[in-house]
Every structure is written in structure tokens, then in C-alpha cells.
Specification:
The protein is mainly β. It is about 0% helix and about 60% strand. This is Protein Ves.
Length: about 200
């Protein structure tokens, strides 16, 4: 099993494909051609209304990390409004999507969490959890080449594996897991509660 704690110095900032914002790339499997990746995990700040970039052949999941609300107008679907308490929204990257952010009362910009996988080769899951006094058991993928990825958006979280090994993941940091155990237990650290985003990536 390979465990890697990643922090802001490991992340890469880059312009959006449509040039209207900036993405912070947390993890990626690069490939030549197409959009340059097989899968990508990232965050971004959405401060103004506008279109999403188009990614043909890509499955996307989007969730809100912090801030107010984000209303999405998605081609062929009813509008949907996302908050920090709504489930991640799944859609095809080839769809035409525009967004309208509404900042919260404190004027905090909206940060989102985005997972993208190339549909013909990879699949993913994304879940958002608030961890309080009770531990959360995270079921990890065990198939070949699978990757599990934890991002701590608030507080700090401790991940304990079957052999008793424990890692602490501070706020704004991530944990990448490859060749994993069947599960690990997540507990909020000194700052309670902790907000985490849990992603799994598996080959089809």
C-alpha cells in the first residue's frame, strides 16, 4: 500500500480550459492528446456567472467546498442549485453548462471540488462527509490500479488503516492511497468537526 500526504506546495494552479478562471489541480493521471488526462481531481473558485469548459467524453462530479450557492444551467436538464450540504452533482463534460454563484452573507467566494474521469477507461465516485465525534469507515477500492483520494476541506482528519498505521491530514491537504486495504477509519482531529471529500478512481 502506498500512502502520500499532499499539501498546497504539491498542487498546481492552471487556467481554466475556457480561460475564465483558475483551477487548482490536486491529482491527475496525464495522457497525451485529448484534454491531457485520464482523470483529474481539482478545486476552483467561482466568483462570477459564466460557462463551464467543455470536456467531451469526460464524466464529472461537482460539489461545493465553501461559500454560498451555485446554480447550474445544464443542457437538457432542469436547473440545479448546489450548496455545501447538497450531494455532488454528476454530469457529462460534453454538456453545455453555465453557472450562477450567489455569495453567502459574509461574501465568501464559492470554492468547488471537481472530479473528472475519461468515460471509456475510468469510473469514479465522490462523497462529502462531516466527521464529528463518531468515526467514519471508508470503503476503499481494491482492484488493480485503483486510487483513493481524501481531501480535508475543514479541520483535520486522522486516517487509521488495518495494520494500525495512522496518518493525520490537515485542513487544505490531501491523502492519496494506492494498493489499499479494504477500508480505513476516519476520525476528526483536534478541530472538530472535519469536512472531507472522498474520491475513488477505478479502471473499467
Amino acid at each position: 500500500m502506498k500512502l502520500q500526504v499532499l499539501g498546497p506546495t504539491d498542487f498546481l494552479k492552471m487556467p481554466w480550459k475556457n480561460g475564465q478562471g483558475v483551477t487548482t489541480e490536486l491529482a491527475v493521471a496525464r495522457r497525451a492528446g485529448d484534454d491531457g488526462f485520464d482523470w483529474r481531481i481539482s478545486t476552483a473558485t467561482i466568483a462570477a456567472p459564466g460557462p463551464f469548459s467543455v470536456f467531451a467524453g469526460i464524466d464529472r462530479s461537482l460539489a461545493i467546498v465553501r461559500g454560498g450557492t451555485l446554480t447550474l444551467n445544464v443542457e437538457g436538464r432542469p436547473d440545479v442549485t448546489l450548496t455545501t450540504r447538497t450531494p455532488p452533482y454528476v454530469f457529462g463534460g460534453e454538456l453545455s453548462v453555465s453557472s450562477t454563484p450567489v455569495l453567502d452573507i459574509a461574501g465568501v467566494p464559492i470554492d468547488d471540488f471537481n472530479v473528472m474521469t475519461r468515460r471509456t477507461e475510468w469510473r469514479h465516485t465522490l462523497a462529502q462527509h462531516r466527521i464529528g465525534e463518531e468515526a467514519l469507515t471508508w470503503r476503499l477500492p481494491t482492484n488493480t490500479d485503483a486510487v483513493a483520494f481524501l481531501y480535508c476541506a475543514q479541520g483535520d482528519v486522522q486516517a487509521t488503516f488495518g495494520d494500525g498505521h495512522t496518518l493525520n491530514v490537515p485542513e487544505g491537504h490531501a491523502l492519496r492511497i494506492e494498493g489499499s486495504d479494504a477500508s480505513c477509519d476516519l476520525r476528526a482531529g483536534a478541530t472538530n468537526p472535519a469536512e472531507v471529500f472522498l474520491t475513488t478512481l477505478s479502471r473499467r
